[in-house]
Structures are given as structure tokens and as C-alpha cells.
Amino acid sequence: MKVAVVGATGLVGQVMLRVLEQRNFPVTELIPVASEKSVGKTLKFKNEALKVSSLEDAVRQKPSLALFSAGSAVSGEWAPRFAEEGTTVIDNSSCWRMHNEIPLVVPEVNASVLSSSSKIIANPNCSTIQLVVAVNPLHQHFRVKRIVVSTYQSVTGTGVKAVNQLFAERQGIATDMAYPHPIDLNCIPHGGSFLDGGYTTEEQKLIDETRKIIGDPHIMVSPTVVRVPVVGGHSESVNIEFEKDFLLEQVYDILKNSPGVTVQDVPSENTYPMPRMAQGRDDVFVGRIRRDVSKPHCLNLWVVSDNLRKGAATNAVQIAEYLLLQNWLK
Fold it and tell me: Mind telling me the catalytic residues?
């Protein structure tokens, strides 16, 4: 199994390498790929030093699988070139997500949309992944009408520049700004760029991707995205309105038996999901489960996940594992 990781020197790329190793994905040859300025540098995988390749060189090697985390522009140009050589591409950028012919996949939710002919597969936005892992099992029982979600997104979701900004501010050091405002001791209600109508691109992703993954274009989603001074792990306050009524006991039972979900909800012991506890783990953590007392058929959840792992790298590797299980990767 020859595997290329495109964007291997970036935050998500580094985690992809770690996840491939930790989950014992059957890599016989790993090809780390990055921009021209990184070509020739070395990265470690399974205690072996590997030289970073260029995109051209990686395409020529015809890997079975290419995991992309190098931005939309790179994916738009290079994913089809890999696919033409028979490589299966799993892309972490936003480039292909809303193309009708491209599957947008969270394995716990909609792996069934994949087929042996899926050569470019889109990995969803990190905030969308954890949302649908928590919401979809409940949707199967009670049918979701509307979701109101406010996110508390960590700086690693923006990238290395944002992490550097946070720590430089804490040390009182001048640095390049990833955000239009200081992030330390602050919350910035701004993710991506603003669209007509006042929503941001990050918020629009939550609307469009949730509907596509769950497979219901009628679900109403009202999102607000906020960046917070947390290094890793996204949190979400989620209010769900269902078509059918529910018992809280049913909700607990469904979530506890849902793949990829860990329920942490013992308020008397101050047990609830927090980003610092989710870091380095692959599950979606759900707590603060309670009825919305202001409206019938409504539920409140608090949902937390490591945005670099389940929100990006782990989800991509899980897609590859599913393809392998179906004998669609060789």
C-alpha cells in the first residue's frame, strides 16, 4: 500500500502521519509531499526518515491512496491528476465538498455513499464532522427539523500562524496576525470570510455540509462560528428541534450506543466534555444533555472533539479504512 500525504509538513498533515501509524494502517511505502520550499527535507514515519517529495514526483509514483491537506488551490489542481493515475484521493480542503458527484463522508454517518469508483472523496469541515456524528443517530429516531449551533473553535483550526499569534500575544511579542484582532483573552465571532447576508464561509459550511452528509436538504441550520483562545479542540453548543418527541433516557441510550460517540454527562461530579480532555483522542464527546425548556421537542447538547484528529486526519484515515475493508484500495 503506497500512500502519499500531501501537505505533510502542515498541522493536519503531521497528525495524518501520526494517525496512520497509530491505527496501523497498512502502509508499505509512505510518500510525504509538500510545497517546493520543503522538498528534500526529512520527516519521520515509523522511526524512518523520509525525504519530502514534490507533487509531480508523487504523481509519477502512482500511490494507491493520497491524503490531501494542502488547501483548496492545490486540491483543485492536483487531486484530478492523482485520480487520473488511479490514485484514490481523500481531500481535507473545501474544494470538492459541495460538488454533487463527489462524496462528502463521515464514516459513522454516510459511508454507504462510497463506491469502488470513488476516486476523489471529500473530508468535511472539522466543525461539521463532530456535529453530524452527534446529531445523526438522533435524527434517525426523531427526525431533525432545525439545528442552532454556536461553535467555540480553537486556533489550530486556522493553522500554525494562529497558534503563533496566540502564544506571541501571551508573551507580549509582536507577530504576524492570523486574525483581524488579538485572540488571547478574547473571542472573535468571525470564521473565514463574510458572505452576502452576514454569515461567514465557516458558517455556510455548517449549513451546506450538514444537509449533504445527513442526506436531508430540508434540515434548517442556524450557525454562529466563534474563535476562542484554545490551542486544540472545538466545542459546540447545539440546540436541536425534532419532529417527534423524545425521552431523555432514549437520548442517552442512543448516544451511548452510537459509533464514535462518548457521553460525558455527570453534572454532580462536574463531568462534561472539554477541549483539553479531547485532545489527542478520536471520539466525539457529548454532554450537558438536557431538554430545551422553552420549546417542545427540543434538546440541548454540548459537543467537543479534537479538530485535528476526528475533525480532519482521523476522519480521512477512517474513510481509507472503510475503502480497504471493501477491497476498493489495493
Answer: 126, 234
| pTM score of the predicted model | 0.97
The CATH classification of domain 2-124+312-325, taken from the options 3.20.20.10, 3.40.50.300, 1.20.1250.20, 3.40.50.720: 3.40.50.720
Q: Quote the strand ranges of the chain, DSSP E.
A: 2-6, 29-33, 42-45, 48-51, 65-68, 88-91, 120-122, 144-153, 220-227, 234-242, 261-263, 284-291, 298-305
pLDDT at 330: 79
The verdict on domain 127-307 having CATH code 3.30.360.10 is: yes
> pLDDT tens digits for 281-299?
999 999 999 999 999 999 9
Average pLDDT, the chain: 97
**pLDDT beneath 50: ranges in the chain:** none
How would you classify the pairing of strands 48-51 and 42-45? antiparallel
Question: Which residue ranges does the chain devote to CATH 3.30.360.10?
Answer: 127-307
Q: For the chain, give me the number of helices (H) and strands (E)?
A: 10, 13
313 DSSP 8-state letter: I
